[in-house]
């Protein structure tokens, strides 16, 4: 295992950081927090021009064919900047499910559109029980003539308000199926949902007897669920990377403030108690990064149960680190850290929202333990 980044990966990181520093400062993020869409067309087109929307999509379909390690590097930088827009939902989740479960014809139809940024995809996964396991699927897809009919009520759909296509896991006669449903299909209702994290939009989506063509089913029977798990493992790695980047930025904000803020005639960063806090935060960030890149390497080199466990552990560990680091950043800022004008509270809200995304921290730890100890869990279902 070579733990060094290649020159191309270093260039990806530096170019992403330079772009986001110039085009996505915190002032822009705050503007998008107040915007109904959450992202401007001009900013999205600039992301498309950089090739990020096709980063992990196969070259045959207009992408760059890069892997989980490259994706983790990019998502670290987007996490540092709290970058708005549907990149995570469309590329990391939506395109990954199509790549894992779709046929060549389905990939040829949808992937070039996603890679070119003309189509954004949202995975409508969670339901009322907020269960990430197969038992949480209450959505039903039934035969209707030569095609199918979908009925489902999905919650907390990331970027569902702007998606042009939904991937909907549902139960059919032969097991779990993954349905591709255009946002303008009959019976689709989308409603924005109030959310802790104002930098990321979520929606509830209802499908009422929505027609689904047989050509729009991804896998079925025994194939669909493992494909969904593999796609979500990649998403867990990407989310862990986002959280590592956010935690690192929260630490940097704390250090800058500790150097500038004076108390009793000296910078508060000179006080030993605060130095210990900052040192602990640094250890959390570096430990989280280690968990992240082991999981990215594991998912890149093994599509089996152990990579699933690594992805779950990275998500849980990085989530906990991000919440603790951003929370301590608020403490270092003092009372003003909770105010709207201060930036640490934005990172803390992102951290708290990420705790429940792709499974809570306890759920991910239990899932990893079930796989490593008993060989069960989602992967063993």
List keywords for this structure.
alpha+beta; 381 residues; 15% strand; four-stranded antiparallel sheet
Strand content: 15-25%
What is the approximate shape? globular
Q: Average pLDDT, to the nearest integer?
A: 92
Largest sheet: 4 strands, mixed
Unreliable sequence segments: none
Number of helices: 11
Please provide the ordered H/E string of secondary-structure elements: HHHHHHEEEEEEEEHEEHHHH
Compute the CA-based radius of gyration: 21 Å
Widest sheet: strand ordering:
1-4-5-8
How widely separated are the two ends?
A: 30 Å
* Total beta strand runs: 10
Question: How would you characterize this protein structure?
Answer:
With 381 residues, the chain is an alpha+beta fold. Helix content is 52%, strand content 15%. The chain has helices at 7-23, 26-34, 41-49, 68-81, 87-101, 104-115, 224-260, 272-301, 305-333, 344-356, 361-374; strands at residues 121-123, 140-144, 147-158, 165-172, 175-182, 188-193, 202-212, 217-218, 262-263, 266-267. Strand 9 (262-263) and strand 10 (266-267) form a beta hairpin. The two termini are 30 Å apart.
């Amino acid at each position: 295992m070579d733990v060094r980044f290649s020159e191309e990966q270093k260039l990806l990181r530096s170019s992403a950081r330079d772009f986001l520093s110039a085009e996505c400062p915190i002032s822009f993020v705050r503007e998008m927090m107040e915007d109904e869409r959450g992202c401007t067309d001009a900013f999205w087109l600039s992301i498309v021009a950089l090739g990020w929307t096709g980063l992990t999509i196969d070259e045959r379909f207009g992408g760059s064919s890069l892997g989980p390690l490259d994706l983790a590097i990019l998502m670290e930088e987007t996490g540092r900047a709290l970058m708005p827009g549907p990149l995570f939902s469309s590329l990391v989740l939506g395109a990954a499910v199509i790549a894992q479960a779709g046929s060549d014809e389905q990939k040829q139809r949808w992937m070039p559109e996603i890679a070119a940024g003309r189509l954004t995809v949202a995975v409508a996964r969670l339901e009322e029980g907020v269960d990430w396991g197969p038992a949480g699927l209450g959505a039903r897809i039934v035969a209707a003539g030569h095609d199918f009919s979908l009925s489902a009520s999905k919650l907390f759909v990331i970027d569902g308000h702007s998606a042009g296509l939904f991937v909907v896991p549902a139960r059919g006669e032969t097991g779990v199926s993954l349905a591709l449903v255009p946002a303008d299909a009959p019976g689709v209702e989308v409603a924005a949902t109030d959310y802790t994290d104002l930098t990321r939009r979520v929606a509830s989506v209802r499908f009422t007897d929505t027609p689904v063509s047989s050509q729009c089913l991804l896998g079925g029977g025994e194939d669909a669920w493992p494909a969904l798990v593999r796609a979500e493992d990649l998403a867990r790695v990407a989310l862990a990377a986002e959280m590592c980047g956010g935690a690192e930025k929260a630490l940097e904000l704390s250090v800058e403030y500790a150097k500038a803020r004076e108390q009793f005639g000296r910078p508060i960063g000179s006080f030993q108690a605060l130095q210990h806090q900052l040192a602990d935060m640094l250890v959390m960030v570096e430990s989280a990064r280690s968990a992240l890149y082991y999981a990215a390497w594991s998912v890149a080199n093994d599509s089996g149960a152990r990579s699933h466990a690594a992805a779950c552990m990275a998500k849980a560990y990085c989530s906990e680190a991000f919440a603790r680091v951003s929370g301590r950043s608020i403490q270092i800022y003092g009372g003003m850290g909770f105010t709207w004008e201060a930036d640490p509270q934005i990172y803390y809200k992102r951290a708290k929202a990420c705790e429940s995304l792709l499974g809570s921290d306890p759920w991910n730890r239990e899932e990893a333990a079930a796989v490593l100890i008993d060989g069960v869990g989602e992967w063993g279902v």
